[in-house]
Amino acid sequence: MGLKLISSVGSVAGAAGNYVYYAATKQVQHEVSTGTGLTVAMTNCGEFPSMVLQMVAIGEESGSLDAMLSKVADFFEQEVDEAVESLSSLMEPMIMVVLGGLIGGIVVAMYLPIFKMGQAI
Asked: Is 0.85 topped by the overall pTM?
């Protein structure tokens, strides 16, 4: 048993977490409720990538919209995971430099007074 398209698009709008996509999804929900097809409504909005529009069109035509949307979600989830992984690999050297500087500063701050006392004698 599936969900009705209009109510599910409304749920997506609430879960978007981004005002641009919230407004776009609300516009899509309104257009779909007036009888426009989902692909046409998403195209009219102009906020969705062409790959998403093509996958939704294929899903609408074949009757497997849920499977196509699942594939789109998997694709974007993989893309986000790759971006996070590359960002973390870029940040590792910077973190090492910062930690090295902090530890070096602490060591110098500890031993500098000892060396200065040794020179005074």
From this structure: no
Burial (Cβ within 10 Å: 0-12, 13-18, ≥19) of residue 12: middle
| Angstrom distance (rounded) from CA 45 to CA 68 | 20
**Rounded CA gap, 100 and 31, in Å?**
57
* C-alpha span between 41 and 29 (Å, rounded): 8
Cα–Cα distance measured from residue 33 to residue 12, given in angstroms and rounded to the nearest whole number: 15
Residue pLDDT tens, the chain, 121 long? 456 888 888 888 778 788 888 988 889 988 888 888 889 999 998 889 999 999 999 998 998 888 998 999 999 999 999 999 999 898 999 999 999 999 999 999 998 888 888 777 6
